[in-house]
Amino acid sequence: MANDFLADEGGSQNTVELSLYEVRRKIYPRSVSGVFAKWRLILVLVTQILFYGLPWVQWNDRQAVLFDLVSRKFYIFGLVLWPQDIIYLTLLLILSALALFLFTAVAGRLFCGYACPQTVYTEIFMWIERKVEGDRFARIRLDGEDWPWSFHKWRIKITKHAVWILIALWTGFTFVGYFTPIKVLSAELIAFTLGPWQAFWLLFYSFATWGNAGFMREQVCKYMCPYARFQSVMVDKDTFVVTYDKTRGDPRGGRAKAANHKELGLGDCVDCSICVQVCPTGIDIRDGLQYMCIGCGACIDACDQVMDKVGYDKGLIRYTSERAMLEHMDNKKARHYIFRPRVLIYIGIMSVLLIAFASSVFLRNPLRVDVMRDRGALAREVEGTKIENVYRLQIMNSSENPMNVSIVATGLPGMQILSSQGKEISELIVNPSSNLLIPVKLRVAIEDVKAGTHPINFDIEATESGPNASKTLRVRDEKSSFIVPR
């Protein structure tokens, strides 16, 4: 608190206390139905079916989507990604950012209003709250009961939080199931043998879901989400956003349904404040576009219902652009300005990146080879007639079929390639989605080479085997060097 001292005419001083921080006023959103409410319901169902269902989908006798941090492998259906494939993750993140910019340039905070996890879980928790405690006014009355709480209030609150916690735990369990095989996780959970990190992240994510969706809600959107702060940079006069038509709606005021509001000097807004009551962030859209607005369209559904009841045209609050409001355009004409230069640039960049990503994945060679020299012994003389260099070959098979691999060394005459036991290396087998690290020796006759460093190649060929194998010949040509001491 901060104290301001004010002096009156008699010279006395009065102390006025001003709060430095805004005290949170709990919001009780009213239920609403309509076009945008249906879209929110559809997106909630789609996103949660995907989130909760994907870990249980099987692919080639394994979990279809699994981010195995211990083995450092990401499985996404038929695609197996290794740490060396970080470029794919980078492309996906860039595409996600560009998609967010594109959606915002076209229609504001679409992601926030319909697909953001904070919005989705807040919708789920509010739906449970309405079912257990009742709609807006019932919840206000219930929370207004003074201490001591009645048995009725205790029962309702405990029931609500019990359901919330069950959903939060299920969400945390599913989240961890993307990083630990969910069937293994289920067995460990039932047997109470979860590892410390698994238990920590399950409880942490569950607590975050319960706290964010049950208590913080709009505070996350207002104060924690950075997107709310920089969305104004991506919105221009042709962006479709939730807008109140001041020209048509003002001056506001109540009136009888049968009255001619034009003769009374009133606009179409009946000042019922239902648009405020349904807003999940508690703002009044009639005050203009605000960074707290998540673009969910709840106020549009509510206002259209009121307009129907009083017999006025719908669309007092609607998705439209600033240009359309200033030039009195209908939405059909305003949509002609959607495909403006910045939107076309976003679409063009995204198209190029998508084509590059798809082409790279399609043409990706699942055979990878790294050649590392043995630093402990660069070169040595063996059997009195030969020079030997030692290398370590790491052969990675990122396909889901075994590979039959052959290795040939070229670059010097009469070069032999031997295993660490000194035997000729023939064909090797590399298991699916695994890597093989083998030491190899290269030998050449002393009389056949001169002193110095000679470039050589390791030519690796591999053929996939197995019932689902493509039988395609995979080839890698890795360069290295052979050292002959002076």
UniProtKB/TrEMBL annotation:
MF GO annotations: 4 iron, 4 sulfur cluster binding; metal ion binding
Secretion signal, residue range per the UniProt entry: none
Gene3D superfamilies recorded: Alpha-helical ferredoxin, Immunoglobulins
Keywords of the record: 4Fe-4S, Electron transport, Iron, Iron-sulfur, Membrane, Metal-binding, Transmembrane, Transmembrane helix, Transport
Superkingdom: Bacteria
Residue ranges crossing the lipid bilayer per the database entry: 35-54, 74-103, 162-179, 199-216, 343-363
A single Gene Ontology CC term: plasma membrane
InterPro entries in the cross-refs: 4Fe4S_Fe-S-bd, 4Fe4S_Fe_S_CS, Cyt_c_oxidase_cbb3_FixG, Electron_Trans/Redox, FixG_C, Helical_ferredxn, Ig-like_fold
Keyword Iron-sulfur: yes
Claim: Electron transport is one of the keywords in the record: yes
Residue stretches making up the 4Fe-4S ferredoxin-type domain: 260-288
Pfam families for this protein: Fer4_18, Fer4_5, FixG_C
Name this polypeptide is given: Cytochrome c oxidase accessory protein CcoG
Organism (species): Polynucleobacter cosmopolitanus
Gene name per UniProt: ccoG
